[in-house]
Write a structure and sequence with these properties.
The chain is an alpha+beta fold. Helix content is about 55%, strand content about 10%. One of its GO terms (cellular component) is cytoplasm.
Length: about 325
Amino acid sequence: MAEEQLDWYAILGVERTATSKEITKAYRVKALKVHPDKNPDPNAAKVFHELSQAYDLLLDPAARAAFDNLLNVKVQAKERSDKYDSVRRKMKEDLENRENAFKKQQQDEKAAALRMHYEMERLKKENIKKREEREAELLKQADQLSQAAEAVRQAARNEEATSLDTTLRVKWKKKKQELGTEELTEIFKKFGSIDSCLSKKQGSALISFKTLTGAFTTMAASERGDKDLEAFTVSWAGGSEPALVSSLRAKSVSSPSTTLSTAASTPTSVSSPQSAPRPAFNVAPSSVFTVAFGSSTKGFAGFPSDLCATTCV
């Protein structure tokens, strides 16, 4: 058994492909070095004996073939063992990777659920706060608008609007588009009933509304950048804001944040001053005039229904 474990090629120091001549030469060289008569080493006899066995075995074709076959069997067995070890290592690594991936997935799901819960709670609190702030602001605006309407009503009882007060000067770039009185009327009638439209030259026109409300609403829409008026420059035909509008604007302010232009340019929620609790309404830009005068007050009769109506929300 011990002899089977020896590598005779290694003892002689030759390759498995060595010829008989190469084996003989290698034996003679090593025999001179390890012969007991010339080497005082106590193990020299054993080494020389193994060297002689290797020489005899490798020069015998049948013995050498049997030894080569034994080496091949050992090599194949080692390859199978290495392959098995490799497969087993890979299976172990795959198992560990799957376990780690499963643990990470559980951790990620838990973290995602906690984050979702946190975000939902945050949004809930923010929505409650925003709703409370919005309700408080709506009540404040309703009170301000009610006070502004009363101030307007008192200030304008003895005022009248002239035809010049209800007329606006409209300009546009004539190179970009040519507009006639019919086209201009179609564009501007959405802001109020039009009494007349006069255009002596392209790029400029005078539009007279039937009410001051229509003129004021158009100016407010232009100031806030209404998309239908983007191509136009709108101004008062008299060169400045009518005294009546300025008077109403000044007297309607119950606080620095409440003006007629604010009412005309920003949709506002109001509550009916005659009921408790107060219902909320969406108010059109001309609502301050409507609340102040109604449809029959002198100088403001004939308000267009689409501008003076209020809609319950």
